[in-house]
Amino acid sequence: xxxxxxxxxxxxxxxxxxxxxxxxxxxxxxxxxxxxxxxxxxxxxxxxxxxxxxxxxxxxxxxxxxxxxxxxxxxxxxxxxxxxxxxxxxxxxxxxxxxxxxxxxxxxxxxxxxxxxxxxxxxxxxxxxxxxxxxxxxxxxxxxxxxxxxxxxxxxxxxxxxxxxxxxxxxxx
Length: 173
Prior knowledge:
2 domains, five-stranded antiparallel beta sheet, four-stranded antiparallel beta sheet
């Protein structure tokens, strides 16, 4: 029996069965509202295509009291049916000493947390890049193109440490 059947933006029918819901509740007790899963599938903030028949749907739920506010729903498509692989709330946090670099000519701001280490960047929008540790894939920095253009008042920039970032990863493998 289905708890819900939703249609995603690619017009695929995705079902959540009672057995799948029981598994999600047992493995991820912080996911306690199947309506949030349905809303994530119907109206995601982002969809990442992980493999041929596997996608990750993301949605931000600001009302949650828990600091983990992004719901990630991984869906595997099997012969017209759907199997949920994983559903959980995630939070991205950087801790350590902050290093800030600004290139005035290119209007580009970089912020790194922690000791310098080998890293790579992933563009998450046309103007934001996240930087990840090459060994651990942990988020260690962020770059913002056209920073002045996107900032309302450069005289007052407030940051609370440790820094909590609301950044979606591109690859989840």
